[in-house]
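Quick note —
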Amino acid sequence: MLCVELIAWRCTSFLVGEYNQAALEKEPIFAIADSIIFMDNKIQGAQSHRTFQIAKMRGVNYFDGIHSLNISKKGINVFPRAKTPPQLSFEHLGERKISTGVLGLDKMTSAGLPLGSSTLIAGGAGTGKTTLSLHFLMAGLKNKEPSVMVTYQETPDQLEIIGRSFGWDLKKYEEEGLLKIIYTSPVELDIDEHTLVIKKAVEEAKVKRIVVDNLRDIEIVANNQVRYHNFVYSLVNFFKSKTITSILTTETEDLFGVPKLSSGISFIADNVILLNYIDVTSVIKRAMTVLKVRGSDHAKEIKEFVITSAGMEVKI
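Predicted structure written out below.
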């Protein structure tokens, strides 16, 4: 009766109640309502995670799925879930190649990485994933290319210390506005909110190069392979739509031999580079393998590399 009266009064109304998803099929009010919004609060690990979902909106197209929500001093903030961009043409990508910042790797990939492509760097702890990523960023920064470093383990101060050990002044590029370091603790990470932070930084700075280090932290936080896969797929395609050349790193469990690339992420990337340790006459050495470069020839051999005070050097 109340709903009928409200419609007659041409009144836009919110009816608030405590229901669960099962009530949707049982309670008459849900059939009468023009729109239905579910808000939930679940425990994930040691944290609570608020969510927002539109279950019904009569006569209107809406963004379905479960979205993140938080409450701040400004009120309620909703962060839409990661979504694959509309079908885009990437014919312009790969028309030229750009340097990785490591001369030997450029030779292995036949003159570098295709412009606008995505590269997965996989390797165990300490194999050099972050060092290679910084080489890639420095190659762009020296050419005045706006760049972003997304990190979940090293803070900006720690990255600046790593950079100085190789003679790179990351702080200078930050002050010039060419480099933005986005650090988020994996303990406090919300994937949907984090996606918007990355996209905003990319669009504001007209970024040319970006590094996400490391996807393993995202995978743990997602706690759901479908959600994790969707995050990576949508983010990679967003970068491509902006002609941004990206590097994403991931941790592998096996330090020696050929480790397995988990979670089906390797096929999303255009290029895949594997870093691992090898045992050469009882001496541990680092090795690099280019597993694929989409649309381009590349070296098939396993190459040894070293990390010195000048950075990474591949022995060709």
